[in-house]
From TrEMBL:
It holds the Pfam family Myosin_head. ATP binds at G150, W151, S152, G153, A154, G155, K156, T157. GO terms for cellular component: myosin complex; nucleoplasm; perinuclear region of cytoplasm. It comes from Scyliorhinus torazame. This is Myosin motor domain-containing protein. The keyword Calcium does not apply. Keywords: Actin-binding, ATP-binding, Motor protein, Myosin, Nucleotide-binding. InterPro entries: Kinesin_motor_dom_sf (IPR036961), Myosin-XVI (IPR052838), Myosin_head_motor_dom-like (IPR001609), P-loop_NTPase (IPR027417). PROSITE patterns: MYOSIN_MOTOR.
Amino acid sequence: MLFADAAHRMTEGFTLATVLKPDVGTPELPEGQVRIRIESDNMIIDTDEELIHKTNPPKLDYAEDLAQLISLNESSVLHVLQQRYGSQLIHTKAGPNLIIIRPSSTVSNYSGKLFKGKKDGMPPHVFAVAQRAYWNMLIHRKDQSIIPLGWSGAGKTTSCQSALEYIVGTAGSVGTTVTVGKIQAMFTILRAFGTISTPQNNATTRFSMVASLDFNQAGRVSAAHLQTMLLERIHVAPQSNCEGTFNVFRQMLAGLDLSFR
């Protein structure tokens, strides 16, 4: 079993434990209480039954989709995410949704070449989400949306760029109206003028945006649109909370001769 009491929840989180059967001759536990043995140190304690979460078979420790879990609870979800992240598997599906745990270093599986030609059976990835949206649009002839959610600096802008690049690269475009190179150039400009450095991320976006693609009847990209809003202009000047100014100023200074700095 996975167990967490009031103290463990804030310090150690969840730990593996086994629920024990009542011993003969021992006083019965109060209603709602169970006796458990913590596997790590064999300590036997009494705790609230509501804090006990059932585990899943070991074969589900690296489940690609959390919906596959037999016992779906907070501790099991965290366990799977932790196991996958420890194996550099930062993407995990949760039904139709995708969970991404931002890595501390650059990952190497964001090349469209790794997924080129695959129409199904793709592992959890931003490209798989983009592919599903594209094919649903073609099959059902209805608009599709991909909405990245997360804390500031979690990687929403990067996910948005990756999805756009994959769709444009897969669908192709009418002439050279929209290309992967143009998408990359657009985000380079957006990052320069709209991101700042923070302790968590050196390119945290400080504006909101809505990007959209238009397609012709053949499913090829015919146009792209970008709307930006809510730019935090306060970051034109340095802030007192360890947040820098917009990265374009740092980049401009880095390109200047020392005599002009």
